[in-house]
Design a protein that fits this description.
The structure holds two protein chains of two kinds. By secondary structure, chain A is an alpha+beta fold. Chain A is built from 20 helices and 22 strands. In chain A, a hairpin with a 5-residue loop joins strand 4 (232-240) and strand 5. The longest helix of chain A has 15 residues, at 332-346. Chain A is globular, with a radius of gyration of 26 Å. In chain B, the strands form three sheets. A seven-stranded mixed sheet of chain B has the order 7-8-9-10-11-18-19. In chain B, strands 1-2-3-4-5-6 form a six-stranded mixed sheet. Chain B contains eleven helices and 19 strands. Chain B starts with 11 loop residues before the first helix and ends in a 22-residue tail after the last strand. Classes of the chains: A alpha+beta, B alpha/beta. Chain A binds chain B through residues 12-15, 65-66, 68-69, 72-73, 76-79, 82-83, 86-87, 427-433, 462, 466, 469-470, 473-474, and chain B through 172-176, 292-299, 301-305, 335, 337-338, 341-342, 345, 356, 365-368.
Amino acid sequence: MNRFAALLDRLAYEPRRNAKIALVEAYLRSEPDPDRGYGLAALTGGLVFHHAKPGLIRALIAERVDPVLFAMSYDYVGDLSETVSLLWPTPEATPNEPPPGLAEVVLALRSAGKVDIPRLLARWLDLLDETGRFALLKLITGALRIGVSSRLAKTAVARLGGREPDEVEEVWHGLEPPYRALFDWIEGRGPRPEAVDPAPFRPPMLAHALEERDAAENDPALFRAEWKWDGIRVQAAAGTMADGRRVQRLFSRSGEDLSGAFPDLLERLTFDGAIDGELLVMIDGRVQPFATLQQRLNRKTVTPKLLAEMPAAIRAYDLLAEGGEDIRALPFDDRRTRLEAFVAAIGDPLIDLSPMIPFETWEDLAAARSDPSAHGAGADAEAVEGVMIKRAAAPYVPGRVKGEWFKWKRDPYNVDAVLMYAQRGHGKRSSFYSDYTFGVWKPNGETRELVPVGKAYFGFTDEELKEIDRFVRNNTVNRFGPVREVVHTAEQGLVIEVAFEGLNRSTRHKSGVAMRFPRVARLRWDKKPADADEIAVLLAMLPEA
Amino acid sequence: MTGPIAPIHSANIGLAAVYRQADALSYWSMRAEDLLSLDAAGLYCAAGGFHIDPVRPVARAVVTHGHSDHARSGHRAVLATPETIAIMATRYGEDFTVARQSAEYGETVRIGEVDVTLYPAGHVLGSAQILLEWRGLRVVVSGDYKRQADPTAAAFVPVRCHAFVTEATFALPVFRHPPVRGEIAKLLDSHALFPDRTHIVGAYALGKAQRVIALIREAGYDAPILIHGGLDRLCRLYAERGVDLGPLEAVAGRAKADLAGRIVLCPPSATQDLWARRFADPVTAFASGWMRVRARARQKGAELPLVISDHSDWDDLCDTILETGAEEVWVTHGQEDALVHWCGTQGIRAKPLNLIGYGDEEEGEGVAAGGAAG
């Protein structure tokens, strides 16, 4: 456990991707089996402990620390595991046994009954130092958050044997911790693990943001365009195992399995192949706002009512495999032709085709982007957040390849608002006031009052964060637990230019509107609160009811 | 240590003497509020006609220590230890005040109706707690203080009092500063592991930098240590005051090859400056109590966080409050709420002062801080 803890500690402070890969690689080289396999599983999110919930950790610390001091500490540190690892009291007598190993912890947690876990955990916490306690708690709550993606860990595995990360990716889904077969293959002691999985995750191809010179330098005839939908990028993969069993999976862009949240969609994956597309909620053939989709994402359990009211759909834009054949090496145009036939053969209104946007010049495309409804998006125009531009001859290559795919987003909306409340952030922003509630003016008889219209958590630079934090601390007029009310009169206060992607009516907000994806665009120290916008500006941006 | 009232160590005999001297009768009619109040410049003692660590220019200031958020220029008169006076003159120029008076630790100075005595606070060179005695009431204003050993500052002396005005920079039980030796070992271990990489240590210009240098020396490293220009004058001042920092050399004017493998100290903000680009593949360390919390350490871009603080950690704050025997505690700046709550659990009356303007230079919360020093 200590070596794994030391690895996590170093990874947490190492900003360089290559250095992170080197650290993970060195760990995998030096750590014996099976511990390194469990370490790899932890880094790739492959360990789940159902009985070790945050509530259990809270209960353990509550027996040892004053609840008020715990609450204040947690508010400050912003992370439960770290708070507990720092607060955990050193036992009166140091137990005479070594700290537990990683495999020991994993196996003990798997075999232990629910009632035994608190005792086990408390004993380990007594045996470990602060770094070890932190690693243990992070491990069992399944939230390492050390800036190591599953992809990065697999890259380190590949390097053990001089292989490509995609080779590891493609055998990955058939494997289980502690991954002995994988290490045997990579280190040249065994055969390649059979890709027994007919529906593996294939790393998606990603786009660069379009810059002016990209358009200037490229011939539009060599490119195709389609709408950029405001949903969630998914990969729907399905196939049949050798023994006849069906496998159907829905992956996020990063390879997380989303199947559990979308059982309705899963049973529609009757094909044999892999579709790259956008997950949307569609009612009567019409795409619903992102907020609706979000309601489905945030549910732990999916009720029949939810499934009926918010049916999930896939709008397909690429085909990666068909009938066991990997077609990623084909040019986009060829894949598109196969995709059109493939989707037609499925014949399901909830798995439809993302249409192409015809254009001859970049100006044509700019016109489509600024007015999607008049250029083919029709009733779904509100769910369009820009256009995607893809090279006709490009094969499907994992990752962000230069010059092949571009995204060209619509300009975000902007409003000048006044900071009203600030709350301390969590994670990286902990101890800084980094969650901001802002408002705009609303006429009230002869006078005007500020009404909150949203909250923003990001968009600012580290330097701006410090400026706002200092402003909040020096201009607090009221405190409500972790929340501070800051001065916001016509003359005194901080004006923030807020950018957002869209606006909806809301009955939950006093202002009657809810912003989508609001963030701090700029601090307007040059403006007084009196110069901030009025609610009418926002109401004018609302889509027609 | 001389003075009308000896500082109390552990002997209870000393305590009894203190209480005989204190006029118990008049104490019962007096409260700390009668002696100290708050105005726009900070803590004000009406009976003496002076402020303590005022944040605006005032007629008469008593200054606990030389950090720029406590020691500001422009007062008409300043009373402080000789070291603090020297630090202020170094940072602001000789004309930082109209009149100045230095008082040694333990020496009592009468101002108006109040006897003022300075005791070591252990925070930085010259740092003092201020004991105010008036009509039998004893109030100690601690300024910033620490209990950990520090080769560059006189050790903190607990002083019995009725009311104790304490800082609270690290007043949360998550802050437990580890022994500094282990933290210095982390630096020297990394230096041994990467002998060709420059190790840049961000440390506050006044106090922390000199303490880190002295600790590195204690650990047996005697090669020249390179320092940023912003540390130069204060390091000289420490050396003149008898603090041995070993050979120090300037970073400026050196070729890249000559910087490889060196240990370099600089103000924290310099690690993000163009200044830091002269080093090839450096390891960036920070010496601060905030390094205990990961999010804070990452925010600063630390690759090698060293938990070294010149403030008291949670346990030392609590122990010190108990040692002073204070019945009332005022909490000045930092995490006031937690310390006030803890005092309540101990039956000690406590209140936050919500002072504004402190913690701006040094380890103050939420501020990147740094080289205000020259």
